Amino acid sequence: MAFARSRQALAIAGVLGLALSATACGTGDDKKSDTAGSAECAAYEKYGDIDGKKVKIYSSIREIEADRLAESWKQFEDCTGIKIDHEGSGEFEAQLNVLVDGGNAPDLAFIPQPGLLKRFVDSGKLKPVGAETKKMAEENYPADWLKYSTVNGQFYGAPLGSNVKSFVWYSPKTFKEKGWTVPTSWDELIKLSDQIAATGTKPWCAGIESGEATGWPATDWIEDLMLRTQTPEVYDQWVTHGIPFNDPKVAEALDKAGTILKNEKYVNGGFGGVKSIATTSFQEAGVPITTGKCALHRQASFYANNWPEGTKVAEDGDVFAFYFPAIDASKGKPVLGGGEFVAAFNDRPEVQAVQTYLASGEYTNSRAKIGDWVSANNKLDLANVPNPVDKLSVQILQDKSSVFRFDGSDLMPAAVGSGTFWKAMVQWINGKDTATVLRDVESGWK
Amino acid sequence: MEFDFAAEQPKFLMLMYGLVAFVAVVGGLLLLLDVVPAWFARRREAQLVAASASGAPIPRRRKPREGVFALFFLLPTLLLLAIGLVVPAVRTVLLSFMDQGSNDWVGLRNYGWMFSEDSIVRVLLNTLIWVLLVPLVATTFGLVYAVLVDKARFEAVAKSLIFLPMAISFVGASIIWKFVYAYRGDGQEQIGLLNQIVVSLGGEPKQWLLDSPLNTLLLIVIMVWIQAGFAMVVLSAAIKAIPADIVEAARLDGVTPWQMFWQITMPSIRPALIVVVVTLSIATLKVFDIVRTSTNGNYDTSVIANEMYNQAFRYGENGQGSALAVFLFVLVIPIVIYQIRNIRQQREG
Questions:
Q1: Do A16 and B28 meet the contact criterion of CB atoms below 8 Å apart?
Q2: Using an 8 Å Cβ cutoff, are A352 and A344 in contact?
Q3: Per-residue pLDDT tens over the stretch A32-56
Q4: What is the 8-class DSSP label of residue B192?
Q5: Any B CB within 8 A of A122 CB
Q6: Which of A84, A169, A303, B296 is the most buried (most CB within 10 A)?
Q7: Which chain B residues touch A418 with a CB distance below 8 Å?
Q8: What 8-state DSSP symbol labels residue B85?
Q9: Nearest residue in B to A211, CA atom
Q10: Strand A320-323's sheet: what is its strand order?
Q11: Do B28 and A16 touch (CB under 8 A)?
Q12: Is the omega angle on the peptide bond into residue B213 within 30 degrees of 0, that is, cis?
């Protein structure tokens, strides 16, 4: 008996030993590759000697997009010898809070909500960017964009990627067959909707179900209509709570959106009635366009990734997007968009070097060449943008007549912008009246 | 979709690390728990052998030793409880009296907010509905099932069927049921089982998860589906443990099955019944994953745990999130006290 016992113990000890030795195999540290010092690395000399250092980046970018990111800064890594360790998470916003509170903040985070960025500044966690990065950002980005990551006069991070949200997706093929034309004003858009509705097809499809973030696609609608029914100044007051959330001006925008979203004649092509918008996932929402069950779908440029496999996204293809037209064209082209900002929790030299590099024209073009990428960076060469929708987005962003505004719900405090506002939109679609839902949001905004 | 093993190497490496770490920790603990008592036992054996060989009286066990021994086993538990439960609980209580960024004291403001904000009152009400219904329905279902299949021909199979959902995680079960409740417009192919049944009976498809309070009830069905198996297994074991002579005596007295159930079975399994109800009540109070996966708390289906997570981790409202957490804690206390009293009574009885 005693003998058996010690044998058992031996076996367990053996397994333990194996286990521990397996974990002990670390990785060697990364050094500059042989390409360092060659001609193509000359551009990276200016980042100084930061060989063998590591920079941790945390973002919401995952899977194929994350692989593309890794590819986009590979040359920088090879030439400078810095190692960029990127981790993407589907629970980015919540997890970033947890990491920072627990003292495990990443070096850099790609923060898509200026509201969240401001919260980290207020709690004293973020470091203002270095002089180099600031110079690079000021050279390459419109002043509008820099405003979003500036808190109390301090600049906290250069923009990185962007997206344009004022798009309506449609099928050029179907339009050609039916003889419909792309509308260039709000009135034309409504005329076209009526025309399509008369043929028995519901013109619009929409979906706002998005798991934890259910409701956000509807907030984009409201923001777009705020920009179209009001002046950009009123929009700014609205997102900073300069006017109450239930101001008549906001109600006007919401009702205008309602003329499409809450119109049983117009929605929800391929899914059902108005209420089905609430339970249709944003990923599936535009797909009926490909089967002819719906004709129009207002969604951002990134919706290009959601079409079924084999769908050709091009001006003469299966699907494409046109600019969501203005109501009054004389006021310029209102453009709603979003993007992420590279904010730093540490200011070690290598972190600042990466920050500077990510704001540079070299990086923007390197990332653009890989595909599916838009940026407001003015060094971005249109020739480097392969896909047609991205090209259109870049053109709109670089167009001088565009009046650009950042996604409002991302600018508001999180409790509103990713809380009550989203929930209110769900209730609004689900039948609650405009005044009630706006009052709910207003009462929760402290 | 090609799956490239080589490209996913880091993930597999991570998986291996996890497994290795698990083996190391669990193995280490097992080793410790195996070796230490064995060593003590061997020493005692040696003492006894030596004592019996020399003919001296057998040495008595010394009491203080046992205390040290007990402490050795209690220490890791106490330490982990302190780190994982006591400290966070105290900190949460403190945070609930502070503002959103945990900088200033605000007194009872967060608690005031909880009972004055309509949407939060709705959350509290929903939680109440959950706590009343889930333990009741799941226990009733489990009990009836246990009685019905007792000594039936296919008892083992029948029990396994009900018990199977227990093996599915809440999130998994919610996704399954989300498909059951799924909606497609009239005239289209229904992908949801429930709507397909409605349509084939000539009705119109309905968006089940949109209308309150029906949607909360439908979410409760998910939890009942998961937990009924647990209730059934515990109660079935209790029924089997009823002494045969009592049942025999009752039979000789000529009871009806109905009397048998109320006069014999129910009183005999009362302790087990209480354990089941209490366990389910506490589990239900904490319900989070079902609501978050199915509706994310929209359409008036939110419950305390879900709202707490949103407030604290998504909206950065630490004070309000903590207040909800403390409230949840307070709700559990009476249930726990009741359970402790029950255990005491049973010991004395």
A1: yes
A2: yes
A3: 555 555 667 887 888 877 788 899 9
A4: S
A5: yes
A6: A169
A7: 314-315
A8: I
A9: B296
A10: A297-298, A167-170, A320-323
A11: yes
A12: yes
